[in-house]
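Q: Fold this one first, please.
A: Sequence and structure below.
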Amino acid sequence: MRNAMLSCFVVLFSVKGLAATGKTLTVGFGAHNSPPYALIKGEVNTGGVIADIIGEISDSLDINSRFVFVPRKRIEKYLLDGTIDFYLISNPKWISHNALIWTIPIFKEKNVIVVKKESKDYETLEDLHQKTVGTIRGFVYPSLTEAFDTQYISRTDVRSLKLNFERLSKGWIDGFIDSDILIDYVFKEHNYDDDFKVASYLVSEHLIYGVLSPKSDISIEEINNALDKLITEGVISAILSKYRINESGIAKKKK
């Protein structure tokens, strides 16, 4: 059954030589992983932060890697039943099942608000009162949950960052929330500095982790050792810099 499911969903298989261990790490990704996390054509992950980090982990552990296109709402299910072994861009606050196994923190990410260039700056939560804010469907914003639930702020969902930029441009929303990493990439790719700006109000700051299936043949110790080396040697920093992301997002190692 597992092989049948994989045959339906596997869209990219990459092997750098023949892995001595013979093991394969099956990694989930999806349309919700906006660039530069995943550079997707059709349902194929052609590159980006996820592919680069997985490539480095695979090389370090001498294993193969396989990418599987999955919807956001199926990530937890597929991790639990072993359809995928690993999912990279996550946080224990977003996927909470206690059977899942978490890596060490890899880097930091901030949720910020984008507004039109000519708009008044939002500096506090009170500035957002009665505003309509674009969000990503299925995503949780813990710091704003109460404000959304009480309609202090109106939340309106779409599937992608691109759609929120389009809605903001047309004046359908007052601003939108997303990752500073994704927004930084889009601003620089499309020269958006003259049209939009990031508001002063910081929605949240959190660490990014990977999450491992309890059914994976590859242990969390192996993955954590690989990640620790990549962080220490500056490889994660170099990957983020490749996509022109500010290096201040790198997770600091505990002393």
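Q: Good. Now the second chain.
A: Here it is, same layout.
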Amino acid sequence: MDLYQSQNLGKKIKRSKRHSGGIIVYIKKQIYPGIEYLKDGSQSPNRMWLKLNKTFFGTGTHIYLCAVYIPPLNSTHTADDLLNLEAEIANYSKYGDIALIGDFNARTGEQADYIENENNSSQFLQDMLPQDYDLDSPIKRNNLDILNQQGNNLLNMCLSSRLRILNGRYLGDSLGYHTYFSKNGCSTVDYAILSKDLLPSVEYFCTSDLNFFYRTMYRSHLN
């Protein structure tokens, strides 16, 4: 681990003497100077925001990266987490592009995360849009999983924030492989999600792999 710096956000449990759970991000030392930890980026211990400096990385805009954990739908905090995440995205979108990565506990199937048939709308409707309005571009997304309510909520957030899911769209993960494995089954609940304008810069995307024995015997999330 000498090649990495770490940034962690612990979760304090009531009546506990120490933090438990939370989020940790490992950053290669050679790029660490170009990354700023935004301590006040979120009030939730389930999200950590980092700013990737555009000058250091040679990008057109600053990129605001959020490491995310969204609790399961039956948790009392799920709705607030998604709504608050969307508010944070709206704030940082004013200053640059957005990247999200983590466990969303959402199964999105192959439902669209873009506005379908927008380019086929009538000329009358298109004339009513602002001149600088950017029509959505449909890019098919594959997924080996099904859709659930949490996935529908995530897709709605993508639509409203003009974000796109990388899973199932690029060489390396063209089928949208499962990311969570347990003895009870497997699912796709971990995602990398980017601002629509960043998609042209993506050439390859994949999730890590685990050997069959580990996947069969233990619960595991891929990243």
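Q: Anything worth noting on the second one?
A: Residues 11 and 215 are 27 Å apart (CA to CA).
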